[in-house]
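New to this. Help decode both lines:
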Amino acid sequence: MDLGRTVRAVSAAERTCLTSEGPVTGRALVIATGLRARRLGVEGERALYEGNWVRRPSHDLPWFRGRRVAVIGGGDRALENAGLLLPVAREVHLLSRGPLRARTDLSAPVLANDRLVHHERARVGRFDVRPDGVTVEVHQADRVWPLEVDAVCIYIGNEPNSQLVAGQVELDPEGYIVTDRFGQTSVPGVFAAGDVCTPPAYQSLANAAGQAMVVAKRIALSL
């Protein structure tokens, strides 16, 4: 195990990682880079993260007390976290691009709460970050309007960290690495395990651990 190195590039064909300390080559290469939160890709988003205006209620709920919060998303996680915020936040604004996709048992009690304002068919145009808060530029129907908040919670899904091998191994349309039942990718000697190659419905720690075991055995038997 070699900790502390940053992998800057990967050559799948050569089974080589180019790291901050130099190249590392093996007889097999396993990609287990997991997921990252999907970004909106709008102006001001980088400053939003760098300024620590993106918060997680499940991690820091007391911080939200008395604050105005925008929750962006329409799935289970967005509604679940909006529900966590309602007892403590001063205002909770839920922005969804379309109809909610969350389960009814999550969405119904949240939407019934008078402290939640649901802005349906609303998308974010940009963020303007100030020392004392954030202005969210909201595009809704035929108008554009500003929403002033103290924090933003973004729940628009995840995407696989497959960019290091994009264009080298086969990916599916969502960017997940395509493997066979042994974790083998389209390049001989290159394997993948965990969320980077698993559809969202089947992602779990137990599944990732099981895949890693299968990959390790396959490599051991093939070397």
In short: The radius of gyration is 21 Å. The domain at 7-35+160-222 is CATH 3.50.50.60 (FAD/NAD(P)-binding domain). The mean pLDDT is 95. The CA atoms of residues 51 and 129 lie 8 Å apart.
